# Entry
Amino acid sequence: MDIAILQNISAILITAVIVLLIFNKLKLPTMIGLFITGIVLGHLINDTTMISTLSELGVVFLLFIIGLEFSVEKFSAIKRYALAGGILQVSLTTILITLLGLAIGLNLKSAIFLGFLVSFSSTAIVMKIMQQKHLTHSLQGRVTLGILIFQDIAVIVVILLIPLLGGESINLNAIPNIIITIIGLAILIFVGAKWFIPLALKDAAKTKNRDLFLLLTLFICMGTTFATSFIGIGPELGAFIAGLLISNTEYSHQTLGYVQPFQDVFMSLFFISIGLMVNLHLFLYNIWIILILTVIILIINFTATLITGMVLKLPTKVSITIAILLSQIGEFSFVLASEGMKYGLMTSRFFSIFLGVSILTMSLTPFLQKMTPKIIKQFRKINYFQVDNELKTLPEEFEEVKPIEDHVILVGLGRVGKQMTKACNQFNVPILAVDMNPIVVEQQQELGVPIIYGNASNESVLKELRVTSAQCLVISASTYEGTLKTIDTARRLNPDIHIIVRTKYLKNIEEVIDAGADEVIPKEFETSILMFTRIMDYYQKDMDEIADAVNNLRSDNYDAFRSVSSEDVSAYLSNSFTDIEVDSVRVYNDAHISDFPFEKHDLTITSVIRENNTITNIKNSFLFLEDDIILFTGQRNDINKFFEDIEF
# Structure
């Protein structure tokens, strides 16, 4: 390895650590510290090739993650407003900035290009702020997300128009090539999203090999980036498209879980790389121009988005909040700027000033967001904005949607998980499920069960399951190590969640309890009925209703009963809520069914537990073996007489 590269990377990392420690002490946004790290080191490091590679790599992976978080389902829920709001916001911003560009002496093409650069906000920054402030599911969060999604899609169109914009004249002969490129891109996305990628991920998921799944994910990212380069699309946008292709499969949450631990690293790398590209001399020389342009661009972005909110008839408070969130210049703008440099739409001085303005708008976003209440208060002093927010009527589909809460998270949808699903549905207890078997996930989704593919030990998967608002977490299928990690992650995200775990051995109980579980039911001594009654007891359900559900579960499958002794089974089944009770007896010597007076006392044999197998088809000629456990039902008085009648 080249020692110079290793030296530069080490310098970047240690400088970032020192700067962030200082910023953390001063309680300043991390983002600003990363920009400063890049700016300082960019002035000291002369290896521009490494800087360029580092910058592109950071943006590629960042946009891949942004694409992964994109969802057609999220977009379709607010598509009318995302389209209307997105078109209006991008158009207004582009027009206003174009006029500004003309005013400062740019030619028409460069002014329009500047309008495109400024019209795209930072998805990464805005989404992180909304998650931190719990705005994602609010009205302003949903509208903001819709506009961001539209912007991300619009970038594809804009980047295809840049060659035309950069030419000396518009060549009509080039239009067919652009149309062919767009059609080819659409076919690539459709074929990949419909067949190739879902099937490939499904086959990888079946193997349950983490390394294989992760390598396939990276291949999809790099392969798509390589393929899109043939039709003139840059690697950054190719990575975003790769994320889009995976995002609309049922494996997106697990994929995000694998790469999300690196998300903050990629974001840090991105911010540092932007700082590295800044020419400190030009930045300081043009500082007043940069400051003035920063203020003007923030005002223009704010105004364009505020007008968009007014046109959509959103409440003033909501419109102002959205306008503040979307006031900065985003990461896609750097992709566009790189393309613009190739076609002469930006000079090096123009690019340096643009970088400075972008960094300042991004850095100011957290501060402006904190000032939102004060800004709203100032606007309410203006007569036009004194209209009562509650008087504004929103269309039905645009009203606040209350996300699922107080629900049960089921980890694993095997036999026990399916019975839990059935029982919870009977009592209208909301559930969200997760399983690592893609076939199970596909089958249960067809049955209408709210289930996703993924490993519950991944933070992103638990967040998708809304663990922070859940009441119970039931882990009925997982590896022992996976169970401990899931408990740790869930407890960290929601300290108050009630965790019930099924573990394989009695010896694991103490360690699982120490890991953070509230209740542990070992596989050697468990039933789905007990897990269900504990959940229902936690929800304080009526005992008569529970009894009916218990009877249904018992009639469905007695395979759930497992024991190490007949006494344990008898005690375990003593929680019956009906006149008909379940009991058990151990066979100490081989015997015929007629050797036991079941028929005499009106008792019904339901099953026989033999080692780890459960036998349910009991005929009159059945032979019991030593250590068999016989499960039977009947009235308590008859059961007592039965035990008095038999000899041990």
